[in-house]
C-alpha cells in the first residue's frame, strides 16, 4: 500500500490552479449518473453502426433474392435461401471439409506445439533466446497473402525447393497443389506451419502458470516425468491450453486467404473451404441473398464456438476464485 | 526497304497527315513513293477525314480547353495488351490532347489479375463510383457490366462520332461489342483482339536428328517445319508430335496448355476440343436458353477425354497452369510446343520490348526469339475428311463507366477516337498488341509486323475463334464448370460425363434462377453431384 | 568441458535448429528478394548466389508503392489508435460500473470478430454501398477501427479488472476527478495491455487483404492488395517482385515481435492470458 500512496500523491500535489478551476465541472461530471454511460457512447456508436446495422442488413438480405449484377429488383423469397443451403450437398460437403481442415490443422498444430513447447520449457538461459523465439514465432505474424502466394513457388513441381529435397530424399517429385490426394494436406501443412508457433506459445504460457513450489516438491519426491505432467502440470496448465485450442479452432474455421491464393479451392473442390464459398457467392457471383444466408449460418456457427470459448473462460475464472 | 522501315515511314507520314502538315494530294504522292498498299492508303485517307484541322474538336471549340482532367483506367494486371492501352494514352494521347484538343490529361492505371478484376470493377461500380473512368473488361463480362447499367451503351456515341464507325473483324464485333448476343446493342469497343496460337520450339523441330528420329518412328512423316505445314496438322498428328518430344528424364515435355482451375483457364483450352468436334455448350436465346441436354453430350465427353490425354505430354504440375505459368514453362525450355494466347507472343518468345526483333529479353533463359515459331493450333478432322478449327476467342473490349461526369466522358470518347486512328493502331501493333480493325489486318504488311500476327490473323478469321456466353450470370456458370472440369482433370471425378452433367444441371439452374430461361433443370439433376 | 554443459549446449543447439526450421520458408522468401529473376526458377534451388538489389529498386520504383505503403501505416496506426481510445473508455466503464448488458455486448463483439471475414464483408459492403462510404478513407479507417475494437476491449478490460479499485478510490478521496483517475492513475497501470493491444491489432490490420480489396478504393489501398494483384508482370508470374515486396512488408511485424516479445502472449490471446514466455 505504501507504494500505492506515493504513486497517487504525485499528480494531485502537482495539480495546477487551472486544473483546480476545472474541477467544478469535472466534479459535476463525476457525480452524474450518466458518466458510466458517457464512457460507453463511442463504443456504442461503433457497435450500432458497424455491428447492429450490418447484422440487421445481413439477416434482412438473407430472405431476399438479390443479385448485384442483375437489373432485377431484389425480391423477398422467405426461407428459400436457407432451404437451399440445407438441401445443397455441395455446401454440406464444404462444411464437412472445413471441419476436417479444422480438426487436422488444429490437431497437428496442438500436438507439435505441445511437444515443442515442452522442449522449450527451461530454455531461459539459452544464448540468443530472444532472437531464436522471434524466428520461431515469425510465421504467425506474416501476411497470409504473401504466404499463400509464395508457397505456390515453394511447392512448384518443376523448380520448387520442397520438390528438390523430395527428389533428393525419396527420389521423386510431388505435384503438391495439383494432386487431388495431396493438395488438401499441402494446404493443411502450411496452416500447421503458420500456427504451431502459436501453440508453442500457449504451451509455454500454460507451463509458466504451474506454481514453482509444486514442481520443486515433485523434484524432491523424484516423481517420474510423465506423472509430473499428469498430476502437476496438466491440472494447472490445461485451461490456457484449452484457450489456445479454441482460438485456433475459430481461426481455422475462418481460413480463406490460404486456399484462395494457393489452390483457388482446387483441384476440383478439394480445398474449397466455407470462407472461400462465401467469397465466391458474394463477390464472384454477386448473389448477395445466397451469400447473406450462408453468412448467417456461419455466424451462428461462430457464435457457438465463441460461447464454448467463453464458457471455458468463465469456468476458469470460477476455478480461480474457488482456490 | 524492310517492313520495319516501311512502317516507320508510314507512321511518320500518318503523323504529318494528321497534324495537317500535308495536303491530301502531297500525302498521296508520298504514299505512292513509299509503295504503300491500297488498304494502307485507304487507312491514310481515313486519317485524313478525321484530321484535326477539319475536325470539330479544334482547340477553340473543345469544351475542355484549358482544363486538366485526371483519368483512371482499370485493366488486367500483368497483361501486356492492357498495359499498352495505358502506355499509349500517356505517351501519345496526352501530348495530342494538349496540342490539338487544348486540354491536359493525366492517366493512372489500376490493375488486377484476370480472376480478380471483375470483383474490383463490380464493387466500385455497385457504389455508382466513377473512380475508374475507363474499364478494360474481359469479353465475357459485358453482360454482367451492362445489365445493371454500370457501363455506357455506346450506340449513340458511335452514331455521333464517325471516327468510331469502324469495320471490325466479325469475331471481334461479336466478342467484344455486342450484348445480348445477336442484338445490335453495343457496349464495348475492341481494345485487344486475341486468339489461341501454338508456340513451337523451332530449334528442336528443325533439328535433323529429331526429324530423322520422328520419321523413323512415324512411317516417314516429317516434323512440320512451316506455317503451311502446321495448317495441315490435326490433333491426331499433333498427339504423335507431342509424344515424340515427351522426355521427362531430359526435363522436356511435348506440349502444355491451360488446365488451371483459376478463372476461365481450363474452359478456354477445353472448348476448342468441343467446338471443333461439333460440341455445343448452350442453345436458344434469352428466355429459352438450354444447357442441360446440350453441354452434356457424348461429343463433349469425348472432347474432355481427348483434352485430358494431353496431360500425359505436359510438364509436372500442369493442372495448375494458367496464363502466367505457361510463359514461365515455355521460356525456361520445359516444353517443345505450347498453346497460349497470341497476345503474349513477345513474352513467349522472350523478346525484349521495343528492341529490334530477335533480341532476347532475359538472355539467361534457354528460349530466344529466333528459335520460336508461332503457328495455328492443331485442326480437328471432320467426318468428311476436312480440317476444322474452332478455338476460344480471347481479348478484351474498352468499356466506359456510366457514372462518369461530362468532362471525363468527353475525354474517354476523345481517347477512343484517338485509339482507332490508323497511326495509333499501327503503333499498338508495332509494340505487340493485336488490333481488331479489319483494315489494319488487311494490310499486307500486317503479317510481318510481329511474329505472332500471322497466326492471330489466321485464327480470328473465318470462324476459327468464337467467344462463349456474355450472360450476366457468367461468373457463376464459369466457376461451376471450372470446378467440374478441374475435378475431372485431376481425377476427383472419373467420368467426364458426370462432370458435364453436373455442370449442365448447375448452369441450367443458374439461368433459371436468374430468369434468363424458362427451362428448369430436370428431375435427374437432383442426383448429380461432383 | 564437463558433461552438463555439453548437454546444455546440445539442448540449446537443438532449440536453435527448431527455430531456424520454422523460419526456413521465410528465409527462402527473403533470399528470393535478392536473387536475379532466373535464379528463382532455377533447378537445383540456390542457397548461395551473388545478391542483387535490383528487385528492391524495382519495388521502390513501382507506381503506387510508396502511397500504398504510406496507406498501410496510416490506416493501421490510425485505426488502432481510435480503437484503443474507444475501447479503453468502454473497458473502464465495463470494469468499474459493470452496467447491465456488459457481458452480452462483450460477447457479441467477440462473436462478430470470430466470423469469417468473407461473411462480415457481405453486409458491410452492402451498407457501405448504400451510404456512399465505399472506397472512402473514413469508411476504411473506421471499419478497421471496428475490426480492432473487440480484442482491444477484451485485453484492456482484462487488465483493468486486474487493477484494484482501491487506486481509483484513493485518488478520488484525495480530490482527483474521474477523468484524472482514468487517464493519470489507471491508464499508466494498464500500459502493458495498451502496448499488447496496439501491437497485435496493428499486425492484424497491417496484414489484412480482403476488406481492403473489396471495400477500399484506389486512395485507400494497402500493400497486401498489391501483393495479391501485382502477381503478374509481362504475362508471367513476377516472383522477384512478390519476394522483395514480401520481404519489405514482413520486416515490421518481425521487428515488432522481437522488440515487444514480452507482450506476445497477451496480444495473441486477446488479454485472456497474461504473462511472458
From TrEMBL, chain B:
<dbReference type="InterPro" id="IPR006059">
    <property type="entry name" value="SBP"/>
</dbReference>
<dbReference type="InterPro" id="IPR006311">
    <property type="entry name" value="TAT_signal"/>
</dbReference>
<protein>
    <submittedName>
        <fullName>Maltodextrin ABC transporter, substrate-binding protein MdxE</fullName>
    </submittedName>
</protein>
<keyword id="KW-0813">Transport</keyword>
<dbReference type="Pfam" id="PF13416">
    <property type="entry name" value="SBP_bac_8"/>
</dbReference>
<comment type="similarity">
    <text>Belongs to the bacterial solute-binding protein 1 family.</text>
</comment>
<dbReference type="InterPro" id="IPR050490">
    <property type="entry name" value="Bact_solute-bd_prot1"/>
</dbReference>
<keyword id="KW-0732">Signal</keyword>
<dbReference type="GO" id="GO:0042597">
    <property type="term" value="C:periplasmic space"/>
</dbReference>
From TrEMBL, chain C:
<feature type="domain" description="ABC transmembrane type-1">
    <location>
        <begin position="69"/>
        <end position="260"/>
    </location>
</feature>
<comment type="similarity">
    <text>Belongs to the binding-protein-dependent transport system permease family.</text>
</comment>
<feature type="transmembrane region" description="Helical">
    <location>
        <begin position="65"/>
        <end position="92"/>
    </location>
</feature>
<feature type="transmembrane region" description="Helical">
    <location>
        <begin position="137"/>
        <end position="156"/>
    </location>
</feature>
<keyword id="KW-0812">Transmembrane</keyword>
<feature type="transmembrane region" description="Helical">
    <location>
        <begin position="12"/>
        <end position="34"/>
    </location>
</feature>
<dbReference type="InterPro" id="IPR000515">
    <property type="entry name" value="MetI-like"/>
</dbReference>
<feature type="transmembrane region" description="Helical">
    <location>
        <begin position="104"/>
        <end position="131"/>
    </location>
</feature>
<dbReference type="InterPro" id="IPR050901">
    <property type="entry name" value="BP-dep_ABC_trans_perm"/>
</dbReference>
<dbReference type="GO" id="GO:0005886">
    <property type="term" value="C:plasma membrane"/>
</dbReference>
<dbReference type="GO" id="GO:0055085">
    <property type="term" value="P:transmembrane transport"/>
</dbReference>
<keyword id="KW-0472">Membrane</keyword>
<keyword id="KW-1003">Cell membrane</keyword>
<dbReference type="InterPro" id="IPR035906">
    <property type="entry name" value="MetI-like_sf"/>
</dbReference>
<keyword id="KW-0813">Transport</keyword>
<protein>
    <submittedName>
        <fullName>Various polyols ABC transporter, permease protein 2</fullName>
    </submittedName>
</protein>
<feature type="transmembrane region" description="Helical">
    <location>
        <begin position="239"/>
        <end position="260"/>
    </location>
</feature>
<dbReference type="Pfam" id="PF00528">
    <property type="entry name" value="BPD_transp_1"/>
</dbReference>
<keyword id="KW-1133">Transmembrane helix</keyword>
Amino acid at each position: 500500500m505504501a507504494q500505492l500512496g506515493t504513486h497517487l500523491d504525485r499528480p494531485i500535489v502537482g495539480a495546477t490552479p487551472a486544473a483546480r478551476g476545472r474541477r467544478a465541472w469535472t466534479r459535476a461530471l463525476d457525480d452524474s449518473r450518466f458518466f458510466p454511460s458517457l464512457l460507453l457512447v463511442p463504443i456504442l456508436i461503433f457497435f450500432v453502426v458497424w455491428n447492429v446495422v450490418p447484422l440487421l442488413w445481413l439477416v434482412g438480405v438473407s430472405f431476399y433474392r438479390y443479385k448485384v449484377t442483375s437489373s432485377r429488383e431484389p425480391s423477398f423469397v422467405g426461407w428459400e435461401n436457407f432451404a437451399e443451403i440445407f438441401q445443397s450437398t455441395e455446401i454440406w460437403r464444404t462444411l464437412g471439409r472445413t471441419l476436417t481442415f479444422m480438426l487436422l490443422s488444429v490437431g497437428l498444430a496442438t500436438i507439435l506445439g505441445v511437444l515443442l513447447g515442452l522442449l522449450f520449457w527451461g530454455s531461459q538461459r539459452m544464448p540468443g533466446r530472444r532472437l531464436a523465439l522471434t524466428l520461431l514465432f515469425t510465421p504467425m505474424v506474416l501476411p497470409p497473402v504473401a504466404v499463400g502466394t509464395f508457397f505456390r513457388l515453394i511447392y512448384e513441381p518443376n523448380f520448387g525447393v520442397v520438390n528438390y529435397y523430395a527428389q533428393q530424399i525419396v527420389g521423386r517429385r510431388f505435384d503438391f497443389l495439383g494432386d487431388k490426394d495431396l493438395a488438401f494436406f499441402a494446404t493443411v501443412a502450411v496452416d500447421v506451419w503458420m500456427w504451431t508457433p502459436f501453440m508453442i506459445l500457449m504451451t509455454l504460457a500454460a507451463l509458466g502458470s504451474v506454481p514453482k513450489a509444486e514442481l520443486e516438491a515433485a523434484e524432491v519426491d523424484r516423481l517420474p516425468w510423465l506423472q509430473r505432467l499428469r498430476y502437476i502440470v496438466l491440472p494447472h496448465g490445461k485451461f490456457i491450453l484449452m484457450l489456445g485450442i479454441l482460438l485456433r479452432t475459430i481461426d481455422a474455421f475462418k481460413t480463406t486467404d490460404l486456399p484462395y491464393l494457393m489452390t483457388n479451392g482446387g483441384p476440383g473442390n478439394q480445398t474449397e473451404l466455407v470462407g472461400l464459398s462465401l467469397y465466391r457467392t458474394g463477390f464472384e457471383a454477386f448473389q448477395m441473398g445466397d451469400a447473406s444466408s450462408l453468412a448467417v449460418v456461419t455466424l451462428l456457427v461462430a457464435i457457438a464456438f465463441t460461447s464454448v470459448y467463453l464458457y471455458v473462460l468463465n469456468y476458469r475464472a470460477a476455478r480461480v476464485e474457488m482456490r | 526497304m524492310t517492313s520495319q522501315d516501311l512502317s516507320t515511314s508510314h507512321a511518320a507520314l500518318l503523323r504529318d497527315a494528321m497534324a495537317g502538315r500535308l495536303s491530301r494530294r502531297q500525302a498521296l504522292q508520298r504514299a505512292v513513293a513509299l509503295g504503300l498498299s491500297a488498304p494502307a492508303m485507304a487507312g491514310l485517307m481515313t486519317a485524313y477525314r478525321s484530321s484535326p484541322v477539319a475536325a470539330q474538336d479544334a482547340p477553340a471549340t473543345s469544351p475542355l480547353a484549358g482544363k486538366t482532367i485526371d483519368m483512371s483506367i482499370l485493366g488486367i494486371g500483368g497483361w501486356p495488351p492492357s498495359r499498352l492501352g495505358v502506355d499509349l494514352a500517356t505517351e501519345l494521347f496526352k501530348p495530342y490532347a494538349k496540342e490539338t484538343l487544348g486540354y491536359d490529361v493525366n492517366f493512372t492505371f489500376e490493375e488486377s489479375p484476370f480472376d480478380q478484376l471483375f470483383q474490383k470493377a463490380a464493387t466500385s461500380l455497385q457504389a455508382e463510383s466513377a473512380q475508374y473512368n475507363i474499364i478494360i473488361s474481359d469479353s465475357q463480362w459485358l453482360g454482367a457490366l451492362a445489365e445493371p447499367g454500370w457501363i455506357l451503351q455506346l450506340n449513340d456515341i458511335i452514331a455521333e462520332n464517325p471516327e468510331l464507325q469502324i469495320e471490325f473483324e466479325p469475331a471481334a464485333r461479336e466478342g467484344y461489342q455486342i450484348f445480348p448476343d445477336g442484338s445490335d446493342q453495343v457496349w464495348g469497343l475492341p481494345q485487344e483482339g486475341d486468339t489461341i496460337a501454338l508456340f513451337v520450339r523451332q530449334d528442336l523441330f528443325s533439328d535433323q536428328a529429331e526429324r530423322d528420329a520422328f520419321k523413323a518412328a512415324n512411317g516417314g512423316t516429317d516434323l512440320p517445319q512451316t506455317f503451311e505445314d502446321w495448317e495441315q496438322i490435326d490433333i491426331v498428328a499433333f498427339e504423335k508430335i507431342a509424344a515424340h518430344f515427351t522426355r521427362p528424364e531430359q526435363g522436356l515435355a511435348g506440349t502444355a496448355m491451360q488446365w488451371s482451375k483459376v478463372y476461365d483457364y481450363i474452359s478456354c483450352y477445353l472448348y476448342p476440343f468441343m467446338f471443333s468436334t461439333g460440341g455445343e455448350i448452350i442453345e436458344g436465346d434469352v428466355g429459352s436458353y438450354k444447357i442441360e441436354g446440350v453441354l452434356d453430350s457424348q461429343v463433349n465427353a469425348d472432347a474432355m477425354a481427348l483434352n485430358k490425354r494431353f496431360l500425359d505430354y505436359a510438364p509436372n504440375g500442369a493442372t495448375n497452369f494458367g496464363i502466367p505459368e505457361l510463359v514461365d514453362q515455355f521460356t525456361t525450355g520445359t516444353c517443345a510446343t505450347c498453346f497460349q494466347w497470341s497476345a503474349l507472343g513477345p513474352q513467349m518468345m522472350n523478346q525484349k520490348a521495343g528492341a529490334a526483333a530477335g533480341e532476347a529479353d532475359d538472355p539467361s533463359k534457354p528460349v530466344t526469339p529466333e528459335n520460336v515459331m508461332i503457328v495455328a493450333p492443331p485442326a480437328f478432322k471432320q467426318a468428311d475428311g476436312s480440317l476444322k478449327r474452332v478455338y476460344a476467342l480471347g481479348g478484351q473490349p474498352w468499356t466506359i463507366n456510366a457514372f462518369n461526369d461530362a468532362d471525363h466522358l468527353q475525354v474517354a470518347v476523345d481517347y477512343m477516337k484517338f485509339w482507332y486512328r490508323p497511326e495509333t493502331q499501327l503503333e499498338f501493333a508495332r509494340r505487340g498488341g493485336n488490333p481488331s480493325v479489319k483494315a489494319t489486318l488487311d494490310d499486307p504488311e500486317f503479317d510481318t509486323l510481329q511474329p505472332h500476327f500471322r497466326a492471330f490473323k489466321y485464327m480470328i478469321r473465318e470462324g476459327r475463334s468464337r467467344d462463349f456466353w456474355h450472360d450476366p450470370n457468367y461468373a457463376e456458370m464459369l466457376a461451376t464448370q471450372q470446378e467440374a472440369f478441374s475435378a475431372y482433370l485431376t481425377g476427383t471425378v472419373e467420368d467426364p460425363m458426370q462432370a458435364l452433367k453436373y455442370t449442365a444441371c448447375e448452369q441450367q439452374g443458374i439461368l433459371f434462377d436468374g430468369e434468363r430461361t424458362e427451362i428448369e433443370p430436370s428431375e435427374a439433376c437432383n442426383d448429380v453431384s461432383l | 568441458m564437463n558433461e552438463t554443459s555439453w548437454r546444455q549446449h546440445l539442448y540449446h543447439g537443438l532449440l536453435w535448429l527448431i527455430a531456424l526450421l520454422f523460419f526456413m520458408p521465410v528465409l527462402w522468401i527473403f533470399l528470393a528478394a535478392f536473387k536475379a529473376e532466373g535464379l528463382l526458377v532455377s533447378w537445383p534451388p540456390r542457397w548461395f548466389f551473388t545478391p542483387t538489389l535490383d528487385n528492391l529498386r524495382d519495388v521502390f520504383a513501382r507506381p503506387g508503392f510508396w502511397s500504398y505503403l504510406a496507406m498501410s501505416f496510416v490506416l493501421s496506426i490510425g485505426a488502432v489508435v481510435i480503437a484503443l481510445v474507444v475501447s479503453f473508455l468502454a473497458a473502464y466503464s465495463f470494469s468499474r460500473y459493470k452496467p447491465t448488458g456488459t457481458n452480452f455486448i462483450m460477447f457479441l463483439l467477440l462473436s462478430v470478430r470470430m466470423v469469417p471475414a468473407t461473411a462480415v464483408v457481405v453486409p458491410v459492403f452492402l451498407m457501405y454501398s448504400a451510404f456512399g462510404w465505399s472506397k472512402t478513407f473514413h469508411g476504411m479507417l473506421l471499419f478497421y477501427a471496428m475490426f480492432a475494437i473487440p480484442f482491444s476491449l477484451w485485453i484492456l478490460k482484462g487488465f483493468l479488472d486486474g487493477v484494484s479499485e482501491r487506486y481509483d478510490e484513493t485518488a478520488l478521496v484525495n480530490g482527483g476527478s474521474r477523468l484524472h483517475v482514468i487517464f493519470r492513475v489507471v491508464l499508466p497501470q494498464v500500459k502493458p495491455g495498451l502496448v499488447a493491444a496496439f501491437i497485435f491489432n496493428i499486425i492484424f490490420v497491417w496484414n489484412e487483404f480482403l476488406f481492403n480489396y473489396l471495400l477500399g478504393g484506389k486512395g485507400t489501398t494497402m500493400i497486401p492488395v498489391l501483393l495479391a494483384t501485382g502477381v503478374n508482370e509481362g504475362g508471367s508470374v513476377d516472383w522477384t517482385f512478390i519476394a522483395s515486396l514480401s520481404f519489405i512488408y514482413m520486416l515490421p511485424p518481425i521487428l515488432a515481435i522481437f522488440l515487444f516479445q514480452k507482450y506476445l502472449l497477451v496480444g495473441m490471446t486477446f488479454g485472456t492470458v497474461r504473462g511472458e514466455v
